[in-house]
Amino acid sequence: MDLIKIIIATTKKYKLPDDPVYLPLQVGATKKGEIIQTGIGYQKDNTGENISSKNPSYCELTGLYWAWKNLDAEYIGLVHYRRYFASPDSNKQMDPYDRIVGGGELMRLVQKYPIIVPEPRKYYIETLESHYAHTHYEDQLVIARKAVKKFYPEYLESFDKVLKQTSGYMFNMMILRRDFLNDYCTWLFRILKEIEKNIDAKDLGAYQGRYIGRIAEIIFNVWLDYQLTSGKVSKDDICELPCIHLEKINWFKKGKAFLEAKFFHKKYEHSF
Question: What is the mean pLDDT of the chain?
Fold first, then answer.
């Protein structure tokens, strides 16, 4: 058994960190029931027990599911080919690749912290709920709340609390000790299956069709808040690491799109 293994969710060949703690994983290796014959040289998410064909809506979560069901490691994590945890000892002047936290440092961190998350993303003038409602579709959160109420009513207080927050741990990035991973994934995928069953996504385009992955970003915070309020973990069990983007974000276009969504009800149509 490995102590720690972090999958890098990717759909294409890319420059990736050369560190054995990281495992590049081609997500969405099965699309519309058909196995993609041409791989990109990485482990595929359609081996073993998997939900690879759900990738258009589940996004990187097909990778998380694959890791949960198929990897033998005490700690399992998820990052993206363009987005990583940064070493807490790095600085913004460094080359982004040199800032990616390495296996040796992670092995020291997990001895102290069973849960590692990216630093909270702050929305300032928006709550998680209002931001989602402006840029995506609010009824999806209503359906998500019903799914939580159906299977895990004890989490409703955390759900309502989290949606009123103006910040959260986003991107579906995390490193969890195996017992927490088992608890989270069992909880998460049961809820997501119910949400998927109750949302008609046939008229959603490719970008808005990723709704399952986006809802999961929010409700990870619900799961974690409940762990804290129920006393299953303490704040001292959680390590926040900086999140780095390897490609520049066009903040002008992103800001413009956000204002159009907030004031003119124009939904996001692509990433930035």
Answer: 91
